[in-house]
Amino acid sequence: MGMAVNSVTNLGRSGVYDWMVQRVSAYLLALYTIFLLGFMLTTDLDYEAWAGLFSQTWFRIFSLGTLIALGGHAWVGLWTVSTDYIKATLPRFLFQAICGTVMFVYVVWGIQILWGL
Amino acid sequence: MFVGVAFLLYGLDLSLSGEEGFARVNELLDSFLAKLIIWGILSALLYHLVAGIKHLLMDMGIGEELKSGRLAAKLTIVISVILIVLAGVWVWQ
Predict the structure, then answer these.
(1) pTM for this entry
(2) Domain check: are B53 and B78 in the same one?
(3) Any B CB within 8 A of A109 CB
């Protein structure tokens, strides 16, 4: 009888769920990256065009969604790397705690930038 | 890349703070160090993007055999190098 090994620190509490988070966030991150690079390359980029793009509600939502996807994507990725290579519990926990904190800061900072609170 | 996001968010914050902030970002991007940092971030991002697209194609069953897998791996490197050089041209033009 097989038994799934669960870890309390992986994002979805199961490898299959993490796998799915990684794919869904990957599509979103790729789409956003290609769109934004395309915009920068095809537009005569001045403040007006730049601020105009980021004043659109749909683009703010797209940006925030991408930032949240980045948080999930980076968590799954860094979690996988840290559980593979940092064997000792305390350093691994500290590494993951720092990554989690930085991600949280990124998301809140992003909200502040996008909605200019 | 994860650390690079801090630079990108800082730049975005400044560039959207007003005309002056936008001009300041342009000014900052004139310096060699800033160009190097942004090129480094773009290089990591482009390579990760190309390799990631290869992964997504493999999810669809494309490039899973030994022969096609090797070709896909080589293509990933070639396409990434071309894009990274182009990104360098873009940053330093």
Answers:
(1) 0.91
(2) yes
(3) yes
